[in-house]
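Following up on my earlier thread - several people asked me to post the actual chain instead of describing it. Fair enough. Here it is, all 160 residues.
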Amino acid sequence: MRTSETIDALAAALVEVQPKLQHPKKNASNPHLRNKFADLNTVIDANRETLAKAGLVVVQTCDKRNGDNGQSAAIGVTTRLIHSSGQWVEGHVAVPLESQKGLNLSQAAGSIITYLRRYGWQTILGINGEPDDDGNEAKSNGTSKPPAADRDKPGDDDLL
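Reply from S.P.:
Thanks for posting it. Predicted structure:
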């Protein structure tokens, strides 16, 4: 996580807005995991107006980094929460860019970007649009794996 030099105005705005934030409604289905989740539009729309009233906005950018030492190239998303004072806080996450069954590389990149944007937006605001299974899916010993774009795959220091 990175921040502007000071974040006192941003912190005060977050203290004020946090109780007003809504968890997005789970409006989409994941056929691989057979669960419901909030799609990117729903995640963004759930709190955009509330954030604006508090002088807050979320900005996201994406990047591609070439792999080093035999690692795959990575697609990343930076999510920045900005206050009208100019103060900000941001986080970055990236995952390896790999081909996926039925998708060309550009489509796979788009899928990864959408996924990372959805999680980045929720994380920076402390909201949740995903099912909470107390980690049971992670303990399933690989019996039900989502497609590559729906898995976190760490690889280097920039990756979660």
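The first strand starts at residue 2 and ends at 3. That should answer part of your original question.
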